[in-house]
Amino acid sequence: MISANHALDTLARKLGLPALAFTEDQVGIDVMPELTIFLSRLDDTTLEASCLIEHLGHPDAAMMQAMLEANHLGGAVGAGRLALDGDTGDVILCESWNLSELDPAALETRFDIFANTAAFWLTAGTEGLLERGNTLRAARSEDAGLAPDPSLDEGQQPVFMRL
Question: Minimal CA–CA distance to 163: which of 72, 42, 73?
């Protein structure tokens, strides 16, 4: 078992970074120019890794359905999930790590897998999800028996539930 602070030390050594420290229970790690992975300390034995999937913006109902399908199928999100940031409404990829079940080597592996999954979502994953969202949107507008699915207007906030 490792603590959240020990986890940061482990990842800093692995990545060749100076010591990392939480600021208000969060730290950002720049993995590549387009990718910052945020680690949030939920408690001393639980970290949540997350990153912004910027190209997906603020999704409408069709895109949210495509995101739920991606979460259900699982292969493209690994142990994580696509979600909406509760503060901004932006799409994020996130994954919780129970540190009581990880040794330092397992933590490093989980970080690498999450970083690779995040890199996928910055490229091909986003393209595929946008395509699926467009397909769902078109199918809804072609269905004469149903009214078009209302999207959130600019400035409206979706309802969020964190489990």
Answer: 42
Is residue 105 domain-resident? Answer: yes
Query: Does residue 147 sit within a domain?
Result: no
Q: What is the pLDDT of residues 2-16, one digit of tens each?
A: 899 999 999 999 999
Q: How many CA atoms lie within 13 A of 37 on its CB side?
A: 26
Residue 143 domain-assigned?
A: no
Give the number of residues written for the chain: 163
Give the residue with greater pLDDT, 19 vs 45.
45
Give yes or no for a contact between 45 and 4, defined as CB atoms under 8 angstroms apart: yes
Sequence-separated contacts (24+) of 15-21 with Cβ below 8 Å: none
Instruction: Supply the pTM of this predicted model.
Output: 0.82
CATH for 73: 3.30.1460.10
**Position 89 in a domain:** yes
Residues 111-128 have pLDDT tens digits of 999 999 999 998 888 888
Q: Give me the amino acid identity at 114.
A: F
Domains in the chain, number: 1
Domain that holds residue 122: 4-133
Whether 130 and 91 have beta carbons less than 8 Å apart is answered as no
Distance between CA atoms of residues 97 and 44, nearest Å: 11
